[in-house]
Specification:
Blueprint lengths: L3 E2 L2 H9 L7 E2 L13 E5 L6 H15 L4 H7 E2 L2 E11 L13 E4 L2 E4 L4 E4 L2 H10 L3 E6 L8 H13 L2 E6 L11 H9 L2 E4 L2 E2 L8 E2 L1 E8 L2 E4 L22 E5 L9 H16 L4 H12 L5 H10 L18 H12 L5 H10 L4 H10 L14
Parallel strand pairs: 3-10, 3-11, 5-8, 5-9, 9-10
Antiparallel strand pairs: 1-2, 4-5, 6-7, 12-13, 14-15, 14-16
Helix pairs in contact: 5-6, 8-10, 10-12
C-alpha cells in the first residue's frame, strides 16, 4: 500500500522525461540507518514478504557498513551502530527452519546467513539478556513478536527511547480468526512509530485479489477443512503443505475465501457452557463435549453449522468439512481453559479423563499456548 506522491518537483522531472500525467508511488528505498529510536511494525499475512523485508534490511546493512567513519557518526547512538543488525527468532518457531543452516534468516525466496547476529529466545527477559550482550547492535529485528509475552512491548519501547535502538517487527497482527493476535500484538501496535502494511495475492486457486488475512485449514483425504474459530490460538506451522489431520496448513486469503466456521457457535453456545462450568455446573459442557466426540450429529455444534451453511439460500458446504478434523472436543476445552479462563485446571483434567480425550495433544498444545498442564501418565497418540 504505497503512498502516492504528487509533489510538483517529481511530476516536473517525470514530465521532462516524456511521461504523461501519472500517479507516482514511493519506490522501495534502502533502509535509513541514520534515524534513531524507531519501532517499525511490518504487517501482513503469510507470504506477503515480511521476513523478506527483514532480509533486505540485512543486505542494506552489509553495504552501509562499508561506509566511512563520517557515516558511522550519523548511525551510532551511545555506542550502538544501527548499521549493525541483529535478528531474533522465537523458540516456538525454530522448528520451521530445520532444513536451513542454524544462522539462516529464511524467507520464501531464499535465506541470508547472519553468523553470530541471530538468536532464538522464548521471552522478553531473554531479549534483554541478548541486547545487553551485544551493545554494538543498533537495529533489532524481532520475528513474530506476537509470540512473546506482553512485557516485550515495554522493554522494546524503553530500550528504543533510552538508547536510540531501532526495532523492526515483521509479525502477524491479526490471527487466523481475523482478530488482533493477542495483547502483545496490541501493545506493540500502540507503541510503534512506523507501520508498513504488506499484502499478498489470495492463495485460492480461483482468485487474484489482494489479501490481508492469514487462513488456517487442515487437509484430510484431499479435502480442504477450514479451522474452527475455537481452534487453538497458537499451532506452530510452516510454509510446506501438510496432508495431516493434526497439523494445519496456513495461507493467505481474501474476505470471500477466508472460511471461519464456528464463530457464532463459540459465543452462542460454547462460551455460555464455559460460564456455567465456572459457576460449578459442569454437566452441560460435559454433555456437549461428549456429543462432539462420540455422537457428532447430535451436538449443538453440528446443528449450528448445518443450519448456517447447508439450509440457507447460498449453501457453503466447504464449511462443513471442518467437522472432518479430529480432536474437536479437545480444542473446545483448550479454548475455554487457555484463552477464556472459564474452566479450572481441575475441571479440565476431570473432563479429559472422563471423556477419554487425547492427553498428548492437550499437553503439547497447552504448552505451546503458554498454559502448560502436567497430565499424569500421558500417552502420546498423535
Amino acid at each position: 500500500m504505497s503512498e502516492i506522491r504528487h509533489d510538483p518537483e517529481t511530476l516536473s522531472f517525470l514530465k521532462s522525461l516524456g511521461f504523461p500525467q501519472v500517479s507516482v508511488h514511493h519506490s522501495f528505498t534502502h533502509f535509513d540507518f541514520s534515524r534513531a529510536a524507531r519501532r517499525m511494525l511490518v504487517i501482513g499475512p503469510m507470504g506477503s514478504g515480511k521476513t523478506e523485508y527483514s532480509a533486505r534490511v540485512w543486505r542494506d546493512s552489509r553495504v552501509a557498513l562499508e561506509k566511512s567513519e563520517k557515516v558511522a557518526a550519523k548511525t551510532t547512538t551511545a555506542g550502538a551502530d544501527r548499521r549493525r543488525v541483529f535478528f531474533i527468532r522465537s523458540l516456538l518457531d525454530a522448528n520451521r527452519f530445520s532444513d536451513y543452516p542454524v544462522d539462516a534468516l529464511a524467507y520464501r525466496g531464499g535465506f541470508e546467513r547472519l553468523g553470530e547476529s541471530i538468536a532464538c529466545i522464548q521471552d522478553s527477559f531473554q531479549l534483554e539478556e541478548v541486547v545487553d550482550s551485544h551493545p554494538e547492535a543498533g537495529t533489532w529485528i524481532i520475528d513474530e513478536a506476537s509470540f512473546y509475552d506482553e512485557r516485550l512491548a515495554y522493554v522494546v519501547r524503553n530500550l528504543s527511547e533510552k538508547r536510540g535502538l531501532n526495532f523492526i517487527f515483521p509479525t502477524l497482527i491479526l490471527n487466523f480468526r481475523k482478530d488482533i493476535f493477542n495483547p502483545t500484538a496490541q501493545f506493540i501496535l500502540e507503541s510503534c512509530t512506523d507501520v508498513y502494511p504488506l499484502t499478498a495475492y489470495c492463495e485460492h486457486s480461483d482468485c487474484i485479489l489482494d489479501s490481508f488475512y492469514t487462513y488456517r485449514y487442515y487437509t484430510i483425504d484431499g479435502k480442504e477443512c477450514p479451522a474452527l474459530y475455537f481452534d487453538p490460538l497458537i499451532v506452530i506451522g510452516g510454509d510446506t503443505k501438510k496432508e495431516d489431520s493434526i497439523e494445519p496448513n496456513y495461507c493467505t486469503r481474501c474476505d470471500e475465501h477466508h472460511y471461519l466456521p464456528g464463530k457464532e457457535y463459540t459465543f452462542l453456545n460454547l462460551k455460555p457452557l464455559g460460564l456455567k462450568a465456572s459457576l460449578g455446573d459442569l454437566t452441560p459442557l460435559r454433555n456437549e463435549l461428549f456429543s462432539i466426540k462420540n455422537e457428532l450429529e447430535r451436538s449443538e455444534l453440528f446443528k449450528h453449522l448445518d443450519e448456517k451453511y447447508m439450509k440457507g439460500d447460498s449453501p457453503e458446504p466447504i464449511n462443513m468439512n471442518t467437522l472432518l478434523t479430529p480432536l474437536i472436543a479437545e480444542k473446545a476445552l483448550i479454548y475455554l481453559f487457555a484463552e477464556q479462563n472459564l474452566v479450572t485446571e481441575e475441571q479440565m483434567k476431570s473432563l479429559t479423563s472422563d471423556l477419554d480425550l487425547n492427553k498428548g495433544y492437550m499437553a503439547r498444545t497447552l504448552s505451546d499456548n503458554k498454559r502448560p498442564v502436567d497430565f499424569e501418565q500421558i500417552e502420546f497418540s498423535f
